Amino acid sequence: MRTEVEDIMVIQELELKNFGKFHDRQIQLSEGLNLIYGENEAGKTTVHTFIRGMLFGMEKQRGRASAADTYRIYEPWENPVYYAGRMRFVCGGKVFRLTRSFARIGKKTELVCETDGEELSVEQGDLQMLLDGVTESIYRNTLYIGQQRAGTEESLAQALGNYMASYEETGDTALDVSGAAKCLKENRKELNARKKTLQLEWEKQRQSLELKGELLEEEIRQKEEKQKQLSEEIERAAAAIDTNHVCAPAEETTSDAEHQISRIVPILILGGLLGVLFFPWMIARIGSALIIAGAITLRLTARSKNINDPNKAETVDESLRWKKKEWSCQQLSEEIHELELKREAFVLEQAEENQTLAQIRRLDDQLAAVDLAETTIRQIAEEIHAGMGSKLERTVSMIFSQMTGHKYNRIHLDEKLKLRIHTSEQVLTPEQVSRGTMEQLYFALRMAVGGLFCKDSPMPVLLDDAFAYYDQTRLEQTLRWLSTCPNQVLLFTCHTREQEILDRWGIPYHKVLLTDS
């Protein structure tokens, strides 16, 4: 018995307007199992690829890769400019019509709900919503199996890890754990770049501040040295002046002798004048001599004063010079005081938090928060993966057990989707079993993961000659399991044995015959 699911997606009709070898070819499908039969080159893979292209679109590759890409391979054989198709499907109880033009010129996609006439937008994500968020990569690695492609790609492991963490934590598969981790990584890169810029800026500021401080200290040191030299010179001058004061009495004695001479000189001159006036001419000569002697004595006395006076003037000049030095010393003291005030202000300025340093500290806090967020996400993902991974293991084990006639009942699955088969005697890798068993194992994995992603709206299972390595017993067991799964199944084959098994077991199916005509 098939499980009834209300929101199951069922493809009702395909119209290959101009796709590969087909032109205006219509294919009717039904829910449940569809057997699409055709000989080699009948176009089975073309129809298989058409469905994927309709659901997810097709883009032409550029460069050397364009020669072998899907777009180029399935370009219409005739009239390649008209490259289009249409699909009608049911989802959520409503009928939708999806039309695509794949041509490079005039490329267009339309999505219409035929049930209520509403026009939807593929560009805005309406189709992606109907597909339950399943991407082409996920579909290609789960429910869509091409010829001899039972294995999965590495990208499926990452997508599955995202799904597990997102769905178990929030019930919403839109949350992308890997995307969140990538966002945090980019955020860290940006923060580190900003921090590096600020650190370079701070280094320049620090060097400038250090130079400013050194220049200020050097200026203070030079002025203090100059002040010290002036103070020492002033002290020596003061000591010399004190010594001159001690010698002052000798100068007074000299001054008294000069005073005595100054008294005699006027008498000599006066006597000489009187002799000239009142005595005869012979005596006048003596008077003249006396006048001359007085004059000479007066001149000598004046000369003696002239010799002493410069000493006194020199003493006054020396005193004034040292007085100026005292003033200079006082001015230096004031300048040093002002510089010391500047130094105190400079020290206080340095003690205050620098704006650049504050920004660097804030960035460090943000980087620490990013690290914490990454660690938390990783721990949560690991815990959730451990819990949900066991559920996935049980589903894979159940499917694989039914497909192998309960020969293998336990499968182990690691975080990279590496499979191990547990038996009662040993643990086997897929490479250690037969090719048919290995194909069954990967088929079970694909179906289990596909069911996980499409839990609310199961998508069609597309199988293009996927059972080439199955013997009769394996194929029979696999077809019996497929008849019970809720998904619509499209089985493309060039063999008749599938139909024979379905008929023998009475399993209902819808047959589509592809011919070259």
UniProtKB/TrEMBL annotation:
TM annotation in the entry: 267-296
Coiled-coil segments: 181-240
Domain Rad50/SbcC-type AAA span(s) in chain numbering: 13-235
UniProt keyword terms in alphabetical order: Coiled coil, Membrane, Transmembrane, Transmembrane helix
Claim: Magnesium is one of the keywords in the record: no
SUPFAM superfamilies to which the protein is assigned, alphabetical: P-loop containing nucleoside triphosphate hydrolases
PANTHER family registered for this protein in UniProt: DOUBLE-STRAND BREAK REPAIR RAD50 ATPASE, PUTATIVE-RELATED
Designated name of the protein: AAA family ATPase
Classification of source organism: Bacteria, Bacillati, Bacillota, Clostridia, Lachnospirales
